[in-house]
From TrEMBL:
Keywords: Membrane, Transmembrane, Transmembrane helix. Pfam families: DUF5670. It comes from the Bacteria. This is Lmo0937 family membrane protein. The keyword Membrane applies. It comes from Salipaludibacillus agaradhaerens (Bacillus agaradhaerens). The chain crosses the membrane at residues 6-39. The lineage of its organism: Bacteria, Bacillati, Bacillota, Bacilli, Bacillales. InterPro entries: Lmo0937-like.
Length: 46
């Protein structure tokens, strides 16, 4: 589930970079998702 969300966010982020539309917002969301993923891996809940 988590990998699916991360994959979708990365896809949207790449599309945002290519189209240069909402790349900033998507990038911010991707960074937040990455931080959440790292925290879950550290705490052992991943």
């Amino acid at each position: 589930m988590l990998w699916t969300i991360i994959s979708i966010l990365i896809l949207f982020w790449l599309v945002g970079l290519v189209l240069d539309l909402v790349g900033g917002l998507i990038h911010l969301i991707l960074v937040v998702a990455l931080i959440v993923f790292i925290v879950k891996m550290i705490t052992g809940r991943g």
